[in-house]
Specification:
Blueprint: H1 2-12, H2 25-157, H3 164-176
Helix pairs in contact: 2-3
């Protein structure tokens, strides 16, 4: 059996790897070159253009996304500026309204104070008039009472000497003096 395997090997050529047999190198190199050319043509004509198209599409999509992002950023900045302007305008209007309200309240307060002062002055004048009337009435009453008392005293101490006019003048001089 061992002779048969050796004989088979001798019939087929040398023993070892067929790729390393120098007798077949020419055809191996030829087919290697043909395979490389076919592979190069397949890659350059079919695969690489498709890959390049996908890469370009992705680059375009990224560029579009960046452009849209920049546009959104510009819009956001414009909206922020508009918001800030509207906020400043609203604050200015609020301050103006508050100032107007304060001025209105001050005017109403001044008018109310003026009305109250007028009422107080009117009541004070009325009170002073009443006090003056009461004082005048009281003076007259005191004068009358003092005159009566003085007349009664004089009539009791000095009966028949009493001069009503003299007693009234004496009481008036004492009260006015």
């Amino acid at each position: 059996m061992a002779t048969e395997t050796h004989a088979d090997a001798a019939g087929h050529g040398s023993v070892g790897l067929p790729q390393l047999d120098f007798a077949t190198w020419d055809s191996q190199i030829f087919w290697l070159a043909v395979s490389l050319v076919v592979l190069f043509l397949l890659m350059s004509r079919i695969a690489l253009p498709r890959i390049q198209t996908v890469i370009e599409d992705r680059a375009d999509a990224i560029a579009d996304d960046l452009d849209r992002a920049a546009e959104y950023k510009r819009k956001a900045e414009a909206a922020e500026k508009a918001y800030e302007a509207a906020l400043a305008e609203a604050r200015a209007r609020a301050q103006k309204i508050a100032a107007e309200a304060r001025a209105e309240v001050q005017r109403e307060l001044a008018a109310a104070i003026a009305r109250a002062d007028a009422q107080i002055a009117e009541r004070m004048a009325e009170s002073e008039r009443r006090i003056a009337e009461i004082r005048a009435g009281a003076r007259e009453s005191v004068r009358a009472v003092a005159t009566e008392v003085a007349q009664a005293i004089v009539a009791r101490l000095l009966p028949g000497v009493a001069d009503d006019k003299a007693i009234a003048r004496a009481v008036g001089a004492r009260l006015d003096g």
